[in-house]
Amino acid sequence: MKKQKNTEAEERNPCLKEQDLTFKCFHDNSFDKEACETAIDNYKLCKSFWYAVQKDRRKQGIRPIMPPLSERDSIKRDFFAKFQQQQ
């Protein structure tokens, strides 16, 4: 039953892994923000990325605006391929 619950949470929150890592860092470091700066930045970057994806999909009229789990890996792969070509 727990696996199903995690899948549902992942469906709603594409940055669940980053969020969990941030919470774990806080717990392990007595909630010291400075010690968890990398985890926090990674979580913020993840949220910004998926917000931009949602904004783009909304503009294009693509529904649902949050891509399903099955499409997320290919969306990230395409983004990083384009990013590498620009450099």
From TrEMBL:
UniProt keyword Mitochondrion, yes or no: yes
Example of a GO biological process term: mitochondrial respiratory chain complex assembly
Swiss-Prot/TrEMBL keywords: Disulfide bond, Mitochondrion
Subcellular location: Mitochondrion intermembrane space
GO cellular component: mitochondrial intermembrane space
Family per similarity comment: Belongs to the CHCHD7 family.
Protein name: Coiled-coil-helix-coiled-coil-helix domain-containing protein 7
Lineage: Eukaryota, Metazoa, Ecdysozoa, Arthropoda, Hexapoda
Gene giving rise to this polypeptide: LOC114337034
